[in-house]
Amino acid sequence: MTSKPNVTKALNVFSIKVGMVGLGFIATLLLTRWYSTEVMGRFFWILSVATLLSAMFRFGQENELIKQVARSDSTEKVNILTSKLLMLTFILSMASVLIAYLLAQSLSHRYVSAVIVGAITALISVIGYTLQAKGYANTQQVILNLPRLLVTVFALGGYVVFGTHHALESLIAPAFVTGLCIALCCYMFKGFRFKASSGLLLTHKKQTINYLFIGVSVVLMAEVATILLGAIGTPEQVAIFAVATRLAYLVIFILLAFNSVITPQFAQLYKQHKLRELIVCYQQARVYSFFIAIIMASVFYLLSKPLLALFGEAYIHGQTVLAVLLVTQVIKVYVGSAGQLLMMSGYAVIQRRCINMGVFVLIISCCVLIPFYGALGAAMATLLASTVNNLLALYFVNKYLSIPFSLAKSQ
């Protein structure tokens, strides 16, 4: 297995992600211009909670789905595996939506919206994982990013037709339902179908618990700062932090592009005892990702003020927040896909411990720093927790799989 196909595929996925993230940037820019920071803060908070709920609804099955689908040469088996997880996700999602509906009188509208959006996001992501595992990573990127773009499209359409901006929260659910319909069409267009079968879980009980904790913890690492900032701080602080996070995310998506291509290969190489090829695959992805990330982070830091000013004068105060988050993303890219490698190589328990430590540090740091520093406190907590999590993961892949700490080739 040579590295050139991996690089080519990753660059293709990267180009799609550039396009989708570029559209996302424009969409966020338009929304921040149309709506106040308070409204945007509530909007970003709903999306963060929905992302967390989505991980819970998948019940820790996504990594096993990727592994089994990637190994399968039978379309019928792929249909069965995907249908199982979709049914499980649907049952858990609908149960949560029903509970939210029954408690609607005591819950605020944004909590109910978050549950509904989380349910739809979970179903879309399951379809995306199957497409990723079968080599349709570009399609996966489109269907995952499309729902959030549709929110802006609906907002623009409402303004053009009715001459007024509709309440942003009321547009989220319709946009995500439309995104789900498009995802289902893409899934069937690729030749896959839905097939009933017995059972819902793809893993045994112990694996399920491990993967569930890992899946939820990974999302907590990404979203809990926003969620806690919304609970402890103000919607305006959430808006500033969320915009800075999305700008900093542009640095990390090169790593995600490589991940979407090489993650299914980790399990195959490890199963075939091709450790040398696995290390080469991992290190080359790290090197390419890191140097691109360094360049991007430097450019974003130098242009932070004009970039943030595009979203509105209120967002200029997020310059320091953006700088801290850029450092966070560079550290992530330097470490590479260590967490994914641990899971795909049979060390899911160790990966869970690494993430749990990061989540623990993040929650404690947020509770301590946010009351004093607001959005900057959330950014500092994110940096500290991400460093702990990623360096622990790198330590263990070095210990068990001989992955070098540096970017140098393995000897």
From TrEMBL:
One of its GO terms (cellular component) is plasma membrane. It holds the Pfam family Polysacc_synt. It comes from the Bacteria. Keywords: Cell membrane, Membrane, Transmembrane, Transmembrane helix. Signal peptide: none annotated. InterPro entries: Poly_Biosynth_Transport (IPR050833), Polysacc_synth (IPR002797). It is found in: Cell membrane. This is Polysaccharide biosynthesis protein C-terminal domain-containing protein. Its main location: membrane. It is a multi-pass membrane protein. The chain crosses the membrane at residues 12-31, 43-60, 81-104, 110-131, 143-165, 171-189, 209-232, 238-264, 285-303, 315-335, 355-373.
